[in-house]
Amino acid sequence: MAADIEELKKKVLDYMAKKSKFKPKMYFKDLCKADESAKMREIKKAASALVQEEKVEYWSSGSTTLYSLKGASSKETDTFEHD
Amino acid sequence: MIDTSMYKDDPGYNIQEKLDIPYDPTLADREYNPQKPMAGRLTDQGPPHYEQFFPEVIKKNYGKWLTHEFVQSGVIKYTSETGDLMWVVRCATPRLITTNLLREIGEIADKFCEGVCRWTTRNSLEYHVTDEGTLKDLIEFLNNFKHPGGSYKLPIGGTGAGITNIVHTQGWIHCHTPATDASGMVKAVMDDMFEYWNSHKLPAKLRISMACCLNMCGAVHCSDIALLGIHRKPPFVEDDRITGVCEIPLAIAACPTAAIKPAKVTLPNGKEVKTVRVNEPRCMFCGNCYTMCPAMPLADEEGDGVAILAGGKISNRISTPTFSKLIVPYIPNELPRFESVCKIVRNIVEAYSKGANKYERLGDWAARVGWERFFEQCQLPFTEKSIDDYRLAYDTYHTTTQFKWSSHTDKLMKEAGY
Amino acid sequence: MADLKKHDTPLLDELKKGPFPSFVDDLETRGKGGVQCCYDLLGQLELSYVHKETHWKHGGIVGVFGYGGGVIGRYSDAPEQFPTIAHFHTLRVNQPASKFYNSKFLNKLCDMWDHRGSGVTNFHGSTGDMILIGTSTDELEPTFYDLSHQFDMDLGGSGSNLRTPACCMGKARCEYSCLDTQAICYDLTMTYQDELHRPAFPYKFKFKVSGCPNDCVAAIARSCTSIIGTWRDNIRIDQKAVQAYVGGEIPPNAGAFSDRDWGAFDLQKEVIDLCPSGCMYMDGNDLKIDDRECTRCMHCINVMPSALRTGVDCGATILNGAKAPILEGAQMSTLIIPFIKMEYPYEEFKDYVDLMWDWWMEEGKNRERLGELIQRQGLAHYIVDILGREPIPQHVKEPRSNPYPFWKEEEVPGGWKRNLADFRARHLA
Fold first, then answer.
1. pTM confidence score
2. Burial of C406 by CB count in 10 Å (0-12 exposed, 13-18 middle, 19+ buried)?
3. Which of the following CATH numbers is that of domain A5-82: 1.10.10.10, 3.40.50.720, 1.10.340.30, 3.30.160.70?
């Protein structure tokens, strides 16, 4: 249902914004705390949609993947980039 | 024929027409707009369907094969219930290969095998032919196909009771946590073991695997012989840069043994910064912290090296699948040719070859003669590092009075004055 | 063409010697052909051989837009010495099941990768993907665009995703295969594209499919869900062919022992006596198998492939939970479903996958593999409460040796709420 997913996306974004101040990168399980009544697969849909909308981005260690608000953990990438 | 009609609408069901169109190096530059990444984007297409790459003889005989025979090391003859025959030639690759070699692999496929080839799970390459004349020509071609330095580009072998190709990881060629090099060690060991690569003279197949740190991308933990890069020094902590490049909670959470704790320190310039401290005796040297936090590097010339594990297997044949066991806790990195690793591998292989029964895998031989005899016959010192003190350690303790007298007990007896 | 610069590599040059294929020669030949990054890659590797330490840094780049996996970021820590490999990211490209290719494909892929990247590859990575090693951040999206538009291809998995499923060659070549391994691998890969590209698992997850218990893709050692072919009926015996083995007309084990004199083939010693369940015997000149006692280890079939064949009532044994030693120690997959039919569209199997994933997503801690969750919450709980399956002796090697099962209140008549007064009426305090 489109209305629900919009609502869920907002909840996920709000939660991430709150959390981001002290922990920019989050596990998927953290995102699920945005709405504990929602099914994990619904949260995943919302998170994937937010990635497509360029509001959320992934970060990966290669073995583990984390989510962050777009740009929130860019300082690290800056340190890595050489040009 | 295989019924694959249910997949015919998949994007990768048949890409052959697409492959006929030459690669267009400017297509993405013309069409892809970084400002609109979703425009024209194709996602979730999945892999190409496998059947389109089969040679005709396989399409025709899929599921109809009756039997096979290794006519020589590296050459397998297949017989189908349709009466068709097929020969497969298996050759080693070092896994790390350039497009130069890939193109040559394709050229050989074109020349001898309808353009088709296949890779095995252990990084060997296989060619399929349907007549003995072509088989002979292909073998002759491969036997003369060499690099400028004289090594074979695609040496034939890797079947039956011999040593198959070593599966391995990236090592120093492309990874950030390795404790040793992978491609170089594999080259050195396979050069030394080459007589077993292209022959059928061992008691059973012998599989060597190599992983360059204990994260084991190569999952070497069930191999007859496992070569494993290990670190032995805990990571640095770069207090002056850690807050800039790391999220400290992630570095803390990355540690499998909870050895990393948050800390506050005052830098020489008087600035107080948040950082971490490592409880060093708890460090298991995995490098997970370094993956999350580049201010915690752990590579070290003196600390790093190689451990050897042995006696594992995957197959369910006769005995059940088994883990490899730690038999050599540490060997320094000897570059470029890892002489000690090669020597120990040779000792193990030769002792096994001499002592094992036909069909007996290395671990089954060691279990039968007893690990005390294994260490003796492989001329390996037994150290306390081989006694488990990690989780579930008790499972490996020797809870019986049944043991064998060996050089180890002889020494004890002598020391006791018996 | 810019000036080529070859670094001195005296240590690596030693790795050109010997018979086994030299990756150094391959990279150097490509460098000589005008590809500086291959020279730089060798130069940096030589530096690692001198320092005995890696010179790569981790990147944190994950994929292309919208994907949470498929790309591994790599940066050189000596970019001034080796500028062409300053960025040297890896793409994982989903391989066709069981890794057959044609030259048309290989050539076009080479054209693409020579243009977009270094021309260095792994055929294949440990999980099974084609690995394209070495390109800059700017080229990642165009490479994906080329793969998806000019090849109809896609990236593989990395991070907390479903990893690219892998399988053995199955019925394409192997008479042992009890499963259509490629079909299963392909179908699962297509069905779970979302799980493969968009991470929402606690950690990595792997499917591997082997056609028989010889397990050539190491499913039992390396996958969270191991799908291994087996059969329920009888091993097919061709008595005439058995006698051909006995008479030395056919070499044992398909000729796998051909370079050593092991003496004449001895059916009793080499097959019957080695059978782990002791279910084989001779009845006159006929080889007999008590199939009910057979554990399908494959030994007899491996020794006499022309005489013995797997049964025809085939399906899969499903095992769960294998992983490499990090963290609690290595685990082998443990038996969950002794037999399941694996036929398109694999509904029964996929229903089981849903139950498994729902549980693991809900209960798994961050970075906890399925096998570790089973260990933490208990195999019995997983089998009975989560999957709703009946516990059977096959689920254990042996019953537990401690008497401490956790009884549930509802299993005990009358429950746990008791009347203390009644108790004390019977027993003085």
1. 0.95
2. exposed
3. 1.10.10.10
